[in-house]
């Protein structure tokens, strides 16, 4: 079990709640995150990454209850996909409510969601009492970062906080599977 500095965890959750942008360790790489309803923070993340909004972003959560507000009725019917046992982390594409911001879902009628086993992600979602926006901490087309030092040197001036910790040890980002069709979009 990773040691998580509770003072830093509280500070990160407070920043998220106030509409800020943080970097934090995930299963494989450092991620950029914010509250899913913080439109200005989502736009900041897109600007930092230089990522087009049309692609959409991922939500991470510690519990199913944190993602239910974003799913359509069809998405809620597929929520049992999170009970499947996979060797690696899986991000599921699920039908999204139409009122969810296009900055979050992109041009899609589905949203990417991962229930995380990473202790930092779980603790952060629980402390923030919310799912979080999650995308790799890098500019589009550049390599993902695996340490807080890398994030600080390349993106630190654009972030409100970097939660220091170790990533989960996975070599590659999560698989992405469409929950309706079972098509694997990223192995």
From TrEMBL:
The keyword NADP does not apply. It is an enzyme of class 2 (transferase). Residues 6-187 form the YrdC-like domain. SUPFAM superfamilies: YrdC/RibB. InterPro entries: DHBP_synth_RibB-like_a/b_dom, Sua5-like_dom, TC-AMP_synthase, TC-AMP_synthase_SUA5. The keyword DNA damage does not apply. It catalyses: L-threonine + hydrogencarbonate + ATP = L-threonylcarbamoyladenylate + diphosphate + H2O. PROSITE patterns: YRDC (PS51163). Its EC number is 2.7.7.87. It is found in: Cytoplasm. Required for the formation of a threonylcarbamoyl group on adenosine at position 37 (t(6)A37) in tRNAs that read codons beginning with adenine. Catalyzes the conversion of L-threonine, HCO(3)(-)/CO(2) and ATP to give threonylcarbamoyl-AMP (TC-AMP) as the acyladenylate intermediate, with the release of diphosphate. Belongs to the SUA5 family. TsaC subfamily. This is Threonylcarbamoyl-AMP synthase.
């Amino acid at each position: 079990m990773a040691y998580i500095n509770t003072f830093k965890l509280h500070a990160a959750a407070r920043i998220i709640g106030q509409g800020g942008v943080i970097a934090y360790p995930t299963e494989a790489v450092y991620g950029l995150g914010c509250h899913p309803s913080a439109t200005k923070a989502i736009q900041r993340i897109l600007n930092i990454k230089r990522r087009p909004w049309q692609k959409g972003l991922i939500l991470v959560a510690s519990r199913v209850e944190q993602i239910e507000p974003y799913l359509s009725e069809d998405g809620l019917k597929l929520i049992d996909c999170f009970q499947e046992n996979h060797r690696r982390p899986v991000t599921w594409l699920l039908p999204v409510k139409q009122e969810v911001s296009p900055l979050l879902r992109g041009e899609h009628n589905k949203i990417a969601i991962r229930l995380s086993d990473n202790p930092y992600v779980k603790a952060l979602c629980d402390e923030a009492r919310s799912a979080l926006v999650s995308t790799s901490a890098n500019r589009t087309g550049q390599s993902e970062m695996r340490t807080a030092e890398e994030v600080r040197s390349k993106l630190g001036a654009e972030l409100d906080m970097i939660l220091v910790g170790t990533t989960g040890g996975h070599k590659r980002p999560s698989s992405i599977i469409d929950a309706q069709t079972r098509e694997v979009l990223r192995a």
